[in-house]
Every structure is written in structure tokens, then in C-alpha cells.
Write a structure and sequence with these properties.
The protein has 27 helices and 53 strands. It has 1384 residues and is an alpha+beta fold. The strands form 12 sheets. Strands 27, 29, 31, 32, 35, 36, 37 and 38 form an 8-stranded antiparallel sheet that branches. The chain starts with a strand and ends in a 12-residue tail after the last helix.
């Protein structure tokens, strides 16, 4: 007998090192080979120990994992001790267990192995595995399952039977009980084995420009807010003349005045136009006030107010409320309750949207129930409680000093170094509060709180916090931040109120350090994405909900409330210039503000109050640690030619660290310190001569100045420059090869052999656990997005495994949710605040809900419904993206700027979490320690515009992990140090390491890139005739090539092969194959009189063909073309990179297996080889031109003589020109046709485009409209369609659902419903006949069992029965038995 161990793999290993495993049994050890790897080590090695003697039930196997080192001693990562008792009993074990460290604590390193016990022949006897190992009730992941002797028929315990019975019963009788459905989904989630599912690898280098990132970029749009005031009811007052005043943003309007009535009728409509981004517009508040109007305007009496933000209105069905009642409340009397109701319709429309009337209720008079038709979101009542929203503003750091303004020129004559007087303005639900003003400080300290009184839950979604400069010529915004309630609160059942911090908030805005001539000042006001770090501010938010909306208070409390209200109004109308003076004046008012009875009572009026608070204790926000940011430039290409030939530099910054302004400022401060020291010496000399002080005092003062000078000299000698290397050396751009349409910076041999490195050190509070959680969720969403994109591509092809792929994607999501739940339970966060604790439960709850939705989609998916299920899965992906947003990210984002001299040309903003290092793979940033592709853009550019493409290696992490920045470098890249840094490296602090100035590559190879561009489909129209003259530019590395121009088509057939000879790629083959470089294909419209117009952009990754592998012919596939946020067509192409063979003598050549060796050359261009081109067949397209209807004006003129053009595959067909559209809108010549060559495969057919145009004076052509037919197969004859269209495979019938074996009557008995009456049971009098008849139908339609049960609004046979229940009960009492329709 013997014991055999198969060591498979070890996962979640830290860093990158040489791994070795030692397995010990009875003192005999086996060692694996040394494997150099990162976080996963795959061994797949077998070891065998022969065994003699007693049975080894009480013995163990020890597995030890080491990090090998050639210099130091080997480091033990963890150990696993396996008891052999189960191996003796079962014969075989499959284990996946965590290792334990020297303290016997579980680590995150998992080892997977297979252990087999081979007894003597005949010693085991005949026995069943169930006799020795039974299923255990524990839910622990450490339970060992006997996978070697699994018998499906033996798993018949009570839990499995109950679950299977529930599934079969629910498949037959859909009760609609959501709790039972959720319980069944939880069972299915639990049954999914996470370890058997391989997670999709996330790419960084070959990742294209993300569409979801483009969707988050705001853009200015046209909006229309429509408000229809119908009537009012139950207004408070006697003999009043009510009028409704409406304010939306800064626009105001009002209705007519109705005389002497409490129930006025208006029916007036108001329209407000806006040109704003969606985020800014949705923060605007719609305010409706009802006044009792009198002769004089200032004598008007306020009756009530209703407020709601535009975001709440837009989030409703059809983007509005229709004929709903708005409850009015008086902000000056919060305890009076509802003051009346106003019936109104609100709608928010974006340009191009139509007002839908599907949700309109019946006319007025039919629906008069006010309480059931409130102008509020569902679940809110007319009388909502009041709440206090308190925003704490403590201090700020790193604000811009505005030294680049006019006052900077006077800095020599003034001692001021900072030219801002900052204060904070907080806006919420139409209310506004301000802090005091701190003079001449870029790090102001306020320690104040601003309180708002608003009904709860508030009909506003964000709080705006804006830092402003109290300038003499007008207040200027320095930066703006928004607190989104969607991220810091949970409005669902068992949720939590809005809470935040105390925590730092990073501020972003314009890169200019002056307000004069700042074209990006709108960024400082929150209009768009910030492109520069502008400091941070310490904030907190707390919400206190008052228990009673109406309460009785004492006179003292009322008086104090009035005093506080007056003080609040005073403090919001006038900014305080000095905090010390206000402390003295407000000391009397601050004491009653802290009385507990004030907080417990509902305030009498809605006021904004500003109070001082105690500063936070030292170290309250956690320890400050040092972080290392490291980057290496690998490629800079596709730069806009506007950069010219001037040298360019790159600037890497994290917060204020690394900025060119900060580095020059530090040198200025050092010089200024020396000037101050010399000035102090001169003053000392004057004092010695004039005042005649004692020699001792003078010597002490002189000694102090000498010590100061020595300290400055010592500091300058130790740190001659800041330890950061955040700005690269100037590099001169060059035009790209072949086509000189773009510029590039060569960073490859033979031009440059070294890759420049940038690094910097920054100090910040370490709250990495928040970002670890964000990374895990982001990876879930990214994998789901990659999988759903694959499903979307499979939907375009017939007979594809779209259903199976969608099921795999959903199972991967559920497995990721399970893994996240296990890790979240083990993870301990340091110094969590209230929001951290609430978000932990909030994320856990929502992930479970998303997993249930995924399981529900998995049940419903079929080949026919895969498209709709894809839409449902996209909703899950969107929710995951929202969950992943961390509102308390203390680590600022990283900026990489392209500089031309001192001018900032282009930038890219890198989220800090995406490059943050962690020892756990799932918690590590997606791009951390990888070469990633970045796309730079210019400030204020259009959405989706690319100024330059970069390939950059990025790493960010605490200093204690700084060695991992170099250990994670791609293979065959070695760091290069400066001699000076190598000498001084030993003298530096232990926590900092000498960083390289560049990288050198030890391995490179040449390839030939072949770009087979066959056809474009459904491109955008750029010319007036509705067509384009498209051509393509392909950019790869430092080379660019162009296709020919195909005139007047939207589906150009280039059929061209672009050959890039001698393309150099650096790095190992494994790295290139895992994450290949990206190819950019830009589509343009050719214009003879101007520059080409962009039609979109596509991204592709090539198929790598290595020398040692046999050549594989590439296949054409579709690539999406995008233009900004919208889709702009498809590209049918194939891309391959063939490694050149250097084994022979002479010049390198293509491998002999490549066919063809030479690309065919026809008419001054390379064409696609016949082996790759699709086979073409001649088709005839017949068009019946019947007529035109409802044509609108074009360019202010009526359409009079239109004609229709049909375009497909580069061929066009025109109808006759109508002589008079208004008189006779039908064509006379009806049938026309044209022949076109199309591929035999239906999914490769180009779309058919229909144009309606009109020939006008001077030869101009006016385009009336277009329509695109995506597929022609729907219009083919039946026999042709059956011949060409591939048949779909029959869907397998589920084996677990066999309706014929179910005993319906027994099932009804087990439901304990046999003894109940009809009214109680809701079961017909003859249930057996109903069930057996329906089971017969289900047997004939077994395929329908795969479909999910219909929705509630759909009627199945059970629903029809319940709908006719009243009629059934009447028939039960009838004496005639034949009257029962269910008798048989």
C-alpha cells in the first residue's frame, strides 16, 4: 500500500518570487521544482510514499510553501497539516484549503491537491462510501467532500428532497410568493460551487476606450420642464385670493389670481427651457408657492410651499408626474401640518423625447382621492417628518494660492504669500449656508457646522459643497464637491439615513492658478470632470429625524427657537471676516445651541444655522502613511500633429506632490528663507549699533541665527532637490512612419533603448480597505461587462452558443458574489466610521439581491429570449457600477500631463483605486503592476476625442510594499539606476528604496502585422446627400497606414490588406499572448475642400502567430465603431501578427507555414488573400416603390419633388422623381431592382440603407431622411432562406422536470388543503381533473417548461381560474351538478 499526492496549484501568493513546496510524511520529504511566478503557482506534480506497517489513520501529511532566495534565508509563507484519517476511509480526497502562518492563523493563500490512498489488494473489501462518510450539516468551507466516491442517487437526505420537491411544485403551480422564490434562489446560489468556475482575466494593454467611462462624461443638452397647474384644494384661509408662483432654478412665473376661493381652478401651462448638463440641471429645485394676493404686492400672505428637485421628477415613469396633488407646507410654521393641495402635472423632457400619455389618469372628477394621488414618489405620505441635516466643515489643505494673478507681480512689495480668503458655501434643497472667511490662508481652519431643516426624506439628491474665495471684485469658486445621497444612504427597508465622515474629500477643477483668463473656470463650479487637483476639505454629515411633525413646546423653547432662527438668518446673509471676533460675540448664543431639548423638539421655522464645533482630536482620521507612485512610459503614439516639433515632457502628480508648480515653489521658499535670514542678520547689526544691548543677549540671538543657517544648509545638503522624479526629460516628437498624419515619441530601439521612469512619494491617511472593496466590485462589473459583450457578439451570428455563454457569465457573477461574501466576513477595517459600517451591510444586501436576479435570469434564458435577458443582465452591471463607487476615497486620483514647455497640452486622469497594490489579487487594482493603455485628451475636448495613446506601467502602494513596484515589472525588463543614486541609496531611510530612472528590455522580436480590412457597415453620413466617402487609418506603435477612399457609400468594401513590416515588440511571448498590444482603426470621411471628418473609431487586438507554432488562418469578425458615446457602425476585419523567423542566414523572413508568403498586390494596393475573403454570390434585390407620406420641411422649404435611393454593398438604386409630392405622393414606376455581390454567410451581409432626397436649385441635394435595414434575410424567399439560414439546434429538455411522474392528488394532500372550503383554499371543487388535464398539455409542450413563468399581468390557466373565482363560488351552490364546468 502507498500514498500518492498530486499537487495542483497554489493561489493568492504575495508578490512575485521563486516558489517551492515541501511535502513531508513520516520524516520523508519530497520537494517540488522552483517556480518563478506571481500570485498563482501551477505545479501539477505527483509524489508517492510507499507505506509498510500499521494503518496510518492517526498520521498526517505536512505541506510547507516557501519563498526562495539566493542571498537570504528561505521565507516560510504557510503550512498545511492534513489528517490521513479520511484518506484511509474514502481512498481519495480533493482538497482546497488555506495555509496557516507561524502563529497558526489562517492566511489567504490556498493550496489545491489530490490525495490517494492505495491499500493492499483485497484489504478494502466491498463497501460503499456512504457507510463511512455522510453529508455534514456545517456550512463551513473546510468540510471535506468525498468526491472520489460520489453517487448522485445516494444524495437523498431531507434537505435535498425538500429543495427538489419545492422546485418541482413551483414548476407546476406558480403561487407568486416572492419569499418562496427568493428562498429557492438562495438554495440555488448556495449550490453553486465557486471553486470550479474560472474567472475571466481582465486585460489592461488591449483594453479599448471604455464606453461606460464615456457615458459618465457630462455634456450640455437641451431640456424642457413643463408644469401644468390645474387646480388647488383645501387651502388654509378665509376669503383668500390664491395665486401659484413657480420657480425653476432662476426662472420665475406665476398663475392668474382667483378671487375669494379656497378651491381655485387654473389650468395654466408653463414651459422652462434649459441648456445644461444633466447633473447640474437635476440639482435644480422646482418650487411652487401659493400666496394670498392683495392690492399691494408687499402685503401678500404666504400660504404654503412645495419643493421637489428635477432629478426626482425625471426618475419617475415617463419622466414626470401627471395630475397629482402636491401637499403644501409652511417653512415658517413647521408644526402646522398640510396647508392645502395643488393639482399639477410635471414633466422633464430631453431634446428629441416625446411626451407620452400612457400614464395619464382619468379626467378630473373621476379620480378625487388626494391621498392616493400625491405628487410624491411611491411610499411617501402628505405629512412627512422634519429632519435636521448638519454638514460639518472642519478644515482644508492644499488649496490653490492664486500666485499667478495680478497680485503675484506685487509679491516683492508685499509679505503675502497666499492671495485667497477662503470660505465654504453649502447648498441643499434650495437652501444655502456659509462658513466664516479665513484671510490669506491655503490651509484654513473653520470648525463650523451648517444645519438645514427639511422634510424627510428630502426631495433632493445631492448636497453641494463649494469652496470660494472672498475676492474684492466678486466671489470666485475654487472647487466644488457633491455629496450624493444615493451613495451615502439606503432608502430601502432596514436601510440607513444619510451619513458621511468625518473624512477628507479631494477637490478637483481647473489647472490654472489664477481667475483671470481661466477658460476652465466652469470646472471649479462643478460643471464637468475636474482635470487638476485643487486641495482637499474635511467634511462630515449627520441627519437627525424628528419623531413628531407636530409638538407642543414651552415658551422658553419657542423663544430660543426664534433666537436661533434670527441668528441663522444673520449668519447666512453676512460672511464673517474674523473667527476670533465671532467667538467672543457668539459665546452667549453657543451655550443654548448645545441644550439637548432644542435638538429633540421640532423647530418652529425652516432656518439655516451656522455654529462652531470642537475640532477633531489629533489622529482621529487614522495614521498618515507614505505612498509610492511609480510609472514607466512604454509607448507614446497617435499624438495630434498640433504638438509640432517642440520637446515634450510628462508630469506625474498625486495630489499636490509632483506638480511642476509645487517643485518650483519649494525652491522659491528655500531662497526666500535664506533672504529672510540675511535680513534678520542686518537687523541684528542695526540693533547692536543703535540699542547697545548687552553682549550676552546679542550673542545668544546671533547663535540662534547661526543655528538656523546651519539647519538650512544641512537640509539643503541632505535634500538638494525634492526626492520625487515626477517630470520626465524633454523628448522630441516625430511623425509616424508611412502616413505622417500623427506624431509619436520613439521609445523603442534603435531610436531609444530605455523606457523613462517617473516616481514620487506622497503622504496620506491610509484607508486602503475602502479601495480594496471598490476594486473587488469593479472587477465583478468589468468581468460581467466583458462576458455580456461576448454575448452581444454571439447574438449577431446564427447557431451560436449564446445561451450557454450567457449562463456561464451569470454563474461567474454568482460565484464572485459568494467569494466576496466570504472575504468580507474575514476582512477587518481599521478605524471605520458610521458610513463604513453601513456600507458594508448595504453592499452585502445588494449583492445578494443581484445574485438572485442573476439566478432568475439564468432560469428564464433560452435561445429565443437571450436578447431580452441580455438587457436584464446589463441592468445588473449598471447596479454593480453604482455599488463600486466609494464616497470616502481619501487617496487622490493620479494625473499624467503632457507639457510643451510650461503649457499643459493634454492629460489623463487615473483613479487611484485602479492602480492600488494589495497582496490579494481580487483587492488589487485592475491596472496595478501592468502595462496599461491610456488615452490622453485635451481640456474641454469633445467626448471620445483622443489626443494621444500611451502604454504606461503603473503602480501605487504604501512604502512598506515599495519593492513590489519593481517585482511586478513585466518579464525581461530590468531597472537601470543612476550612479549617483546607487551611491546614495545606502544612506537613505530604510522605508525608501532607490528607484530606477529607466528600464531596459532584454528580449524583443520582430513581427509582420497584417490588417485585413474587408468592409465597413452602417457608417455615419457626413455629406448632404446622406452618404460618406470613407477611408480608414490604422495606427500601431509608431506606424500608420491608410486605405483607399470609397466614394458615396455607408458600407464601404475596401477589401484591402495593410502590411506593417518589421514591427518590434518587447517583452516575453507569454506576456504578449496574455495581453497583446492594441490596434486603433479610425474611420474618416474624405473632403476635397477641407480636412477629413471623423466618422468613428474601432479597437482591435491582433492574433499572434509565433514561429514555433503552426500557422492558423485568421477569421473575419466584427468590431464596433463608436463616435463619442454613440455607436457609429461596424468593421468587418481580421488582424494578425506573424513573428519573423531568424533561424536562417540573411534577413529575417516569414515562417514557411504562412500562406500566402506574399500578400496579393493589385492596382497599387495589397488586397485580402482569397483564403480569408468570404465567398461572394450574386443576389438580386427588388424594391417596390409605393409612395411617401408625412414628409416635413427641410431647410425651411417644403419637400416638393423627392426621390428615393437604395444603397447596399456599394451599389445604388434610384426611384423616379415625383413631380408633385403634395398633389400625388405615390410613384408611377413601382418595381425596380439591382444586382449586388454579397457573402454567402447571412450574418456577413451589409445593411440596406434607404434615403429620401430632393434635387434643388443650383445642383444642391437636400436630404429628407434615412432608414437602415440591418438584415436582408427577413425579405428573402422562404426556399432561399431555408437553404442559407442555418438551423438552430434543438434545446435540451430538462431532465429534472418530468410532469408525467408527478402525482397531482398526492401533492394536493401534502399541501394540507383537502379539508378547507373553497373560499379558504382557492382550489376548484375538482382539482384532480384540472391538474391532470393541464399536465397532459404540459407533456405535449415539454419545451415550454424551459421558459420562466409569465409575469403577473400575463394570464395563464391558473390566473384565469383565480379571475373567475366569484363565478365558481356561485356555481357551487347550484343543485344541478351539470352546471359545474369542472365535472368530468
Amino acid at each position: 500500500m502507498s500514498i500518492t499526492v498530486n499537487l495542483k496549484r497554489i493561489s493568492n501568493l504575495p508578490g512575485r518570487s521563486d516558489r517551492k513546496v515541501e511535502l513531508t510524511f513520516r520524516g520523508f520529504s519530497h520537494k517540488t521544482r522552483v517556480l518563478q511566478c506571481e500570485n498563482v503557482a501551477v505545479f501539477n506534480q505527483h509524489f508517492r510514499w510507499p507505506h509498510y506497517g500499521n494503518i496510518m489513520k492517526d498520521e498526517v501529511l505536512c505541506v510547507s510553501v516557501y519563498n526562495m532566495s539566493k542571498v537570504f534565508s528561505h521565507r516560510l509563507l504557510g503550512k498545511l497539516v492534513v489528517s490521513l484519517q479520511h484518506a484511509v476511509l474514502t481512498g481519495r480526497l480533493l482538497l482546497r484549503e488555506p495555509l496557516t502562518d507561524v502563529n497558526y492563523s489562517l492566511t489567504e493563500i490556498y493550496v489545491e491537491l489530490e490525495l490517494v490512498y492505495n491499500p493492499l489488494q483485497g484489504a478494502a473489501g466491498g463497501w460503499d462510501g456512504q457507510d463511512f462518510l455522510k453529508r455534514q450539516d456545517s456550512q463551513s468551507s473546510l468540510v471535506i467532500r468525498n468526491l472520489g466516491y460520489d453517487d448522485p442517487e445516494s444524495q437523498s437526505d431531507a434537505e435535498a428532497l425538500e429543495r427538489e420537491t419545492r422546485r418541482i411544485g413551483r414548476s407546476l403551480v406558480r403561487t407568486g410568493d416572492t419569499e418562496e422564490d427568493e428562498q429557492d434562489e438562495d438554495d440555488e446560489i448556495t449550490d453553486i460551487e465557486a471553486s470550479n468556475i474560472t474567472l475571466t482575466p481582465l486585460l489592461s494593454r488591449s483594453r479599448p476606450l471604455s464606453r461606460h467611462m464615456l457615458a459618465t462624461i457630462p455634456r450640455v443638452q437641451s431640456f424642457q420642464v413643463n408644469i401644468n397647474i390645474l387646480e388647488a384644494q383645501k387651502l388654509v384661509g378665509v376669503n383668500i385670493n390664491p395665486a401659484v408662483f413657480i420657480r425653476v432654478g432662476n426662472q420665475k412665473k406665476h398663475t392668474a389670481t382667483q378671487k375669494s376661493t379656497n378651491c381655485p381652478f387654473y389650468n395654466e401651462n408653463f414651459m422652462f427651457e434649459f441648456q445644461e448638463t444633466a447633473d447640474i440641471l437635476f440639482d435644480q429645485v422646482i418650487e411652487m408657492k401659493v400666496f394670498h394676493r392683495r392690492t399691494l404686492a408687499f402685503l401678500m400672505t404666504h400660504i404654503g410651499t412645495f419643493k421637489i428637485d428635477i432629478a426626482t421628477v425625471y426618475s419617475q415613469p415617463d419622466h414626470g408626474f401627471f395630475q397629482k396633488w402636491a401637499p403644501l407646507s409652511d417653512p415658517g410654521d413647521t408644526r402646522a401640518g398640510v396647508k392645502g393641495y395643488v393639482k399639477a402635472s410635471l414633466s422633464v423632457l430631453m431634446r428629441g423625447e416625446a411626451l407620452t400619455t400612457s400614464s395619464l389618469p382619468p379626467p378630473s372628477g373621476v379620480n378625487q382621492d388626494i391621498d392616493k394621488n400625491l405628487l410624491l414618489p411611491k411610499g411617501l405620505g402628505a405629512e412627512r417628518p422634519w429632519a435636521r441635516f448638519t454638514v460639518g466643515v472642519y478644515r482644508a489643505e492644499g488649496l490653490p494660492t492664486m500666485e499667478a494673478g495680478i497680485l503675484a507681480s506685487l509679491s516683492k512689495a508685499s509679505d503675502r504669500k497666499v492671495f485667497i480668503n477662503p470660505y465654504v458655501q453649502v447648498t441643499f434643497a434650495g437652501q444655502q449656508g456659509e462658513t466664516s472667511v479665513v484671510s490669506s490662508s491655503s490651509s484654513p481652519v473653520w470648525n463650523e457646522q451648517i444645519s438645514f431643516i427639511e422634510q424627510f426624506p428630502p426631495l433632493a439628491r445631492r448636497i453641494r459643497v463649494q469652496v470660494l474665495d472672498d475676492a474684492a471684485l466678486g466671489d470666485v469658486a475654487l472647487a466644488t464637491h457633491f455629496l450624493d445621497f444615493e451613495q451615502i444612504s439606503d432608502p430601502t427597508r432596514n436601510g440607513f439615513n444619510a451619513t458621511f465622515g468625518p473624512g477628507w474629500v479631494n477637490l478637483y477643477g481647473s489647472p490654472q492658478n489664477s481667475t483671470l483668463g481661466d477658460v476652465h473656470q466652469a470646472l471649479n463650479e462643478g460643471l464637468g470632470e475636474g482635470i487638476f487637483y485643487r486641495g482637499r476639505i474635511l467634511l462630515a454629515l449627520n441627519v437627525t429625524v424628528y419623531s413628531s411633525p407636530s409638538g407642543v413646546t414651552t415658551e422658553t423653547g419657542s423663544a430660543l427657537g426664534k433666537v436661533k432662527g434670527a441668528m441663522g438668518k444673520f449668519m447666512t446673509t453676512k460672511k464673517k471676516k474674523s473667527k476670533k471676533r465671532d467667538k467672543k460675540e457668539g459665546s452667549a448664543e453657543s451655550k443654548p445651541a448645545e441644550e439637548p431639548e432644542i435638538i429633540l423638539e421640532v423647530p418652529e421655522a425652516v432656518t439655516v444655522e451656522t455654529e462652531e464645533v470642537h475640532p477633531l482630536p489629533e489622529g482621529f482620521l487614522g495614521p498618515v502613511e507614505e505612498f509610492l507612485m511609480f510609472a514607466t512610459l512604454f509607448e507614446v503614439t497617435k499624438m495630434d500633429p498640433s504638438v509640432g516639433t517642440r520637446p515634450l515632457t510628462f508630469e506625474l502628480s498625486l495630489g499636490n506632490c509632483g506638480k511642476m508648480v509645487e517643485m518650483s515653489k519649494s525652491k522659491k521658499e528655500l531662497t526666500r528663507s535664506r533672504e529672510d535670514l540675511m535680513r534678520s542678520r542686518e537687523n541684528l547689526g542695526r540693533s547692536r549699533e543703535s540699542l547697545g544691548r548687552s553682549r550676552e543677549d546679542l550673542s545668544e540671538e546671533a547663535q540662534g541665527l547661526l543655528d538656523s543657517e546651519e539647519e538650512l544648509d544641512r537640509e539643503e545638503s541632505l535634500n538638494p532637490e525634492p526626492p520625487n522624479r515626477s517630470i520626465s526629460a524633454p523628448m522630441k516628437p516625430q511623425p509616424t512612419e508611412y502616413d505622417r498624419s500623427y506624431c509619436c515619441i520613439p521609445l523603442q530601439p534603435p531610436a531609444v533603448r530605455l523606457k523613462p521612469c517617473l516616481w514620487l512619494w506622497a503622504r496620506c491617511e491610509n484607508h486602503s480597505s475602502r479601495l480594496y472593496q471598490t476594486n473587488w466590485l469593479h472587477k465583478m462589473a468589468a468581468r460581467l461587462e466583458v462576458g455580456l459583450d461576448d454575448v452581444d457578439l454571439l447574438l449577431r451570428r446564427p447557431r451560436s452558443n449564446v445561451k450557454e455563454r450567457l449562463v456561464e457569465v451569470l454563474l461567474e457573477l454568482v460565484a464572485s458574489v459568494k467569494q466576496f461574501g466570504v472575504m468580507a466576513a474575514k476582512r477587518v477595517q481599521s478605524r471605520p466610521n458610521n458610513l463604513d459600517r453601513c456600507r458594508k451591510e448595504f453592499i452585502k444586501k445588494n449583492l445578494i439581491l443581484l445574485a438572485r436576479q442573476a439566478v432568475r435570469i439564468k432560469r428564464r434564458v433560452t435561445r429565443r429570449t437571450a436578447k431580452q435577458r441580455l438587457v436584464d443582465a446589463r441592468k445588473i452591471q449598471k447596479k454593480l457600477r453604482l455599488l463600486a463607487k466609494e464616497p470616502q476615497s481619501t487617496l487622490p486620483d493620479v494625473f499624467l500631463w503632457l507639457l510643451s514647455g510650461r503649457k499643459r497640452v493634454a492629460y489623463v486622469r487615473i483613479p487611484a483605486h485602479s492602480i492600488l497594490f494589495s497582496l490579494v489579487e481580487e483587492q488589487r487594482g485592475t491596472d496595478c503592476g501592468k502595462v496599461t493603455t491610456l488615452f490622453m485628451k485635451t481640456p474641454g475636448c469633445a467626448v471620445g476625442q483622443v489626443f494621444a495613446k500611451l502604454e504606461v506601467y503603473l503602480w501605487l502602494g504604501p512604502t512598506k510594499y515599495s519593492k513590489e513596484a519593481l517585482n511586478s515589472l513585466p518579464e525581461d525588463f530590468l531597472p537601470v539606476y543612476e550612479e549617483q543614486e546607487e551611491q546614495e541609496g545606502e544612506g537613505q531611510a530604510e522605508q525608501r528604496r532607490a528607484m530606477p530612472v529607466s528600464l531596459s528590455c532584454q528580449d524583443s522580436r520582430y513581427f509582420q502585422l497584417r490588417c485585413h480590412l474587408y468592409q465597413g457597415r452602417g457608417l455615419m453620413a457626413a455629406d448632404d446627400n446622406g452618404l460618406s466617402d470613407p477611408f480608414a487609418r490604422v495606427v500601431f506603435s509608431t506606424q500608420c497606414q491608410v486605405t483607399r477612399v470609397v466614394s458615396e457609400t455607408l458600407s464601404p468594401a475596401w477589401c484591402e490588406c495593410l502590411v506593417f513590416d518589421r514591427v518590434l515588440l518587447e517583452g516575453s511571448k507569454e506576456e504578449l499572448e496574455r495581453d497583446p498590444p492594441l490596434i486603433i482603426i479610425s474611420i474618416y470621411d474624405y473632403d476635397t475642400m477641407g480636412s477629413p471628418e471623423s466618422l468613428g473609431r474601432a479597437f482591435a487586438e491582433p492574433q499572434l502567430q509565433f514561429v514555433e507554432r503552426p500557422y492558423q488562418k485568421p477569421c473575419l469578425r466584427f468590431y464596433d465603431i463608436t463616435r463619442g458615446k454613440s455607436s457609429a457602425g461596424e468593421l468587418l476585419a481580421a488582424f494578425e501578427m506573424i513573428e519573423l523567423d531568424y533561424s536562417g542566414f540573411g534577413e529575417p523572413c516569414l515562417p514557411s507555414s504562412v500562406e500566402p508568403q506574399e500578400v496579393p498586390f493589385v492596382s497599387d494596393r495589397f488586397v485580402i488573400p482569397e483564403e480569408i475573403q468570404p465567398k461572394l454570390t450574386t443576389f438580386r434585390i427588388e424594391v417596390l416603390f409605393w409612395g411617401l407620406r408625412e414628409l416635413r420641411r427641410v431647410q425651411l422649404f417644403e419637400v416638393e419633388r423627392p426621390l428615393v435611393r437604395v444603397e447596399c454593398g456599394g451599389k445604388q438604386l434610384e426611384s423616379e422623381e415625383m413631380l408633385s409630392y403634395t398633389g400625388h405622393p405615390n410613384f408611377k414606376d413601382l418595381v425596380r431592382y439591382f444586382d449586388v455581390e454579397l457573402p454567402e454567410q447571412p450574418h456577413l451581409h451589409p445593411p440596406l440603407t434607404v434615403f429620401v432626397v430632393e434635387q434643388r436649385a443650383f445642383g444642391s441635394v437636400a436630404l429628407v431622411g434615412t432608414h437602415q435595414v440591418p438584415s436582408l434575410m427577413a425579405y428573402t424567399p422562404p426556399e432561399l432562406g431555408d437553404m442559407m439560414e442555418e438551423e438552430e439546434e434543438e434545446e435540451p429538455k430538462p431532465a429534472t422536470r418530468s410532469p408525467g411522474k408527478v402525482k397531482a392528488l398526492t401533492t394536493v394532500k401534502k399541501m394540507n388543503l383537502m379539508g378547507l372550503s373553497i373560499k379558504q383554499s382557492k382550489i376548484p371543487s375538482m382539482p384532480l381533473s384540472i391538474i391532470t388535464s393541464q399536465l397532459g398539455k404540459l407533456t405535449k409542450k415539454a419545451e415550454e417548461l424551459e421558459e420562466e413563468s409569465p409575469e403577473e399581468e400575463e394570464l395563464d390557466w391558473w390566473s384565469k381560474y383565480y379571475a373567475s373565482l366569484d363565478e365558481l363560488e356561485r356555481q357551487v351552490g347550484s343543485p344541478n351538478p351539470s352546471s359545474n364546468p369542472y365535472n368530468t
